[in-house]
Design a protein that fits this description.
mainly alpha, single chain, about 100 residues, flat
Length: about 100
């Protein structure tokens, strides 16, 4: 069995970041929670803000971590979209032409 490390502040931060990331990544599942239908208007914006607020309170002094994790998710989503469409930064004429062809179909 490998030696056990003593628990440190860095372990706290790693675990906290993982918990926040899981919560933020699963927001869509939380929107569908029974009893929240009446506050799920505007694409779940109100629920999303509450989730982010809860995550910030949970993070306490490290509340900035929530924004960092949100930023990672946005960048990852943009990269996924670019990968799916073949788009490069600023786009290319060929990619735009192909996209327009697909839209016309």
């Amino acid at each position: 069995m490998p030696p056990r490390d003593a628990w440190s502040d860095s372990h706290d931060e790693i675990l906290l970041r993982a918990v926040i990331s899981l919560i933020l990544a699963n927001r869509r599942n939380l929107y569908a929670t029974p009893g929240l239908e009446g506050v799920g208007d505007h694409g779940g914006e109100r629920i999303n803000k509450k989730i982010q607020g809860f995550a910030r309170r949970m993070a306490g002094e490290k509340a900035g971590m929530v924004g960092e994790e949100l930023g990672k998710m946005v960048r990852k989503r943009k990269e996924d979209v670019k990968e799916e469409t073949g788009e490069v930064e600023g786009g290319t004429a060929k990619v735009k032409q192909e996209r327009n062809k697909k839209r016309k179909l």
